[in-house]
Amino acid sequence: MQIHSDQAVHTAEKATPHHHNLIASDRVEGTPVCRAGGGKVGTVQRLMIDKVSGNVAYAVLTFGGFLGFGQKHFPIPWSRLRYDLAQESYVVDLTDEELSRAPSYQADEEFDWGDRSKEIVIHRYYRTPQYWGI
């Protein structure tokens, strides 16, 4: 009888969608990135996570291109993104001008995403507090 009751609860949990404040990193990768007023500008390619603290230092966004050609990668401080439940996407409050001047790298360009000295440039540009994972 207890097994039947647990199965009913388990089945009910599957049928009811849950919204959580936690998300697996593989579900963040590929999530659309939109502007505050709507309109997709790119996707989250990867998250850069501090090994020691476990905090997200920044996200690498992919914008532009066609079939992988001409794509640019934009490292953006995690604090500049916010998740919008209605749009089911991350939202950035950046203008076209800000994006055109933002630190970015061609998809085929060598870049050491783990180099913390590059992070200084990113945080200065976006005027966000320096993140050192401590």
Describe the protein's architecture and organization.
With 134 residues, this protein is an alpha+beta fold. The chain has one domain (20-126): Roll (SH3 type barrels), CATH 2.30.30. Helix content is 26%, strand content 28%. The chain has 4 helices and 7 strands; from the N terminus they run ααββββββαβα. The protein has helices at residues 2-15, 25-28, 96-101, 116-126, and strands spanning 32-35, 40-49, 56-63, 72-77, 82-84, 89-92, 105-106. It has a 7-stranded mixed sheet with strand order 5-6-1-2-3-4-7. Strand 3 and strand 4 form a beta hairpin. The N and C termini lie far apart (51 Å). The model is unreliable at 1-16 (pLDDT under 50).
A few lines on this structure:
By secondary structure, this protein is an alpha+beta fold.
List keywords for this structure.
SH3 type barrels; 134 residues; 4 helices
- Compute the separation of the termini in Å: 51 Å
For the sheet with most strands, the description reads: 7 strands, mixed
What's the Cα radius of gyration? 18 Å
Strand content: 25-35%
The name of the CATH superfamily reads PRC-barrel domain
What's the topology here?
Blueprint: H1 2-15, H2 25-28, E1 32-35, E2 40-49, E3 56-63, E4 72-77, E5 82-84, E6 89-92, H3 96-101, E7 105-106, H4 116-126
Parallel strand pairs: 1-6
Antiparallel strand pairs: 1-2, 2-3, 3-4, 4-7, 5-6
